Amino acid sequence: MEEKQTLTGGAKFSYALGAVGKDMVYMLSASYVLYYFQDIMGVNAIAMGAILLAARIFDAFNDPIMGVIVAKTKTKWGKFRPWLLIGTLTNAVVLYLMFAAPPKLDAAGMTAYAAVTYILWGVTYTMMDIPYWSMIPAFTEGGKEREGLTTLARSAAGVGSAIVSVLTVKLVQMLGNSFGGANAREIEIIGFKYFSLIVAVLFVVFTVIMCVNVKERSTAEMETVSVGQMFKALVQNDQAMAVTITIVLVNGALYITSNLVLYFFKYDFGGTHWYDSYTLFTAFGGGIQILSMMLLYPLLRNGLKLSNTKIFYVSMGMGAIGYAVLLALTFTTMSSVYLLFIPAFFVFATNGVNAILTTVFLANTVDYGEIKNDRRDESVIFSMQTFVVKLASGVAAFIASICLQINKLSNAAVSEADKAVDFSASVSASAKIGLRMTMTIIPIVGLIVAFVWFRRKYILTDEKVAEIAETVKKRREKA
């Protein structure tokens, strides 16, 4: 009889390292591809927004297909590790090519280049992302070991995202200057090229370390979900529908701001060293977001004994307050970035708490669906989470691109004779107002609509959830 093994510390560290590299790559693409192609390379903002939205919709169909392919894979190295390596290597190459666009391409050529590389990036990222998370049952025994590894990986992914969020703009400036950028635009072109190369190399190294040290030691089956199953479960489970629409509204509101905050610092807050202020702001915000997940949510839930629905209402209120304060501050001189920490605290805390509540609320709808429809759609419901988050990010990017187009915010339109340029000096007051309105008023409306929708449609209070859980338990005992 084979002796039961537990995961070694090295295996856990290696798996977490894979998450760091994976989310460094994801964050670089998710946060900076619009800025790179629209602001630096001159692609029409509406065209870029349409590309991002179309790619997210395509992902909704591509993800389940990749899930089926991985599930049917059988090799002597397992079903997951081959795709992890193939996906990582191809995605790293595409990532570098995406941020190394030939500057001499004309407008049509650059738009086509952006579309092809971004869609290829999404396809190759899916090739490694799905097997990464799906392989957990193949090398854990379940229970606390599995839950602990999942938590570790999610935390490591947050670290990878934070590294890129905080360091990208600063390191792009440093690398661009170091490798001979002649003016502000050229510095960013060169900087992004070399920074993406560094991230791509780290991504490959981290994944190889993970694949060497983490072994698939069981033949756990991987359950796959089709798009049709997701929509069928959504229609038949009114609480899943309530949560899904809430997720789209809340995440869409938050993502609009995250897409535009870089433009805000460059074209509105201004200064020749605007990127230093942006780096400081994102470092503070990222820290608050992590702390809100680790400390604020447990304080509200366990310390103040608030129900999850009340925590959601508190979170929405905090977000609205943050955006209102930000809007008020933008009509002052904004002489110090530290003033912006006030709204950042509320908005980033909302983002952190919302990340936890999303998973909690969706989990609640699984038991509810089992009672209502006599069918447990666990894998379907959680596959839906990825779909709706991607949908929200695509819609938000498209709205942000409309704002950029209307207000004519583009690096290409600014004189770049010098390396250090105060871009805000050449932007009209009306353009700045348009940017401020889009990144504050629209999110406030989104959060209010989400609050009203959730309050009217979501019925799974803590008491109701406990009641449903007890009913499910009794059903299983009788079965």
Q: What does the model show?
A:
This protein has 479 residues and is mainly alpha-helical. 79% of the residues lie in helices and 0% in strands. The protein is built from 15 helices and no strands. Helix 2 runs parallel beside helix 4, helix 3 runs antiparallel to helix 4 (107-134) and helix 9 (238-269) packs antiparallel against helix 14 (429-457).
Helix and strand layout, with pairings?
Blueprint (H helix, E strand, L loop, with lengths): L8 H32 L4 H28 L8 H18 L8 H28 L1 H4 L3 H36 L5 H30 L13 H10 L1 H32 L4 H30 L4 H22 L11 H33 L4 H29 L22 H29 L4 H17 L1
Helix pairs in contact: 1-2, 1-3, 1-4, 1-6, 1-7, 1-9, 2-4, 2-13, 3-4, 3-7, 6-7, 6-10, 8-9, 8-13, 9-10, 9-12, 9-13, 9-14, 10-12, 11-12, 11-14, 12-13, 12-15, 13-14
Features:
479 residues, mainly alpha, 15 helices
**Mean of the pLDDT scores?**
86
Order of helices and strands: HHHHHHHHHHHHHHH
Form type: globular
So how many helices?
A: 15
DSSP strand tally: 0
> How far do the termini sit from each other?
31 Å
Could you describe the largest sheet, including whether it forms a barrel?
none
Structural class: mainly alpha
Rg, Cα atoms, Å: 23 Å
Which parts are unreliable, with pLDDT below 50 for 5 consecutive residues or more? none
What percentage of the residues does DSSP assign to strands (E)?
under 5%
Helical proportion, percent range: over 70%
Compact summary:
By secondary structure, the protein is an all-alpha fold. 79% of the residues lie in helices and 0% in strands.
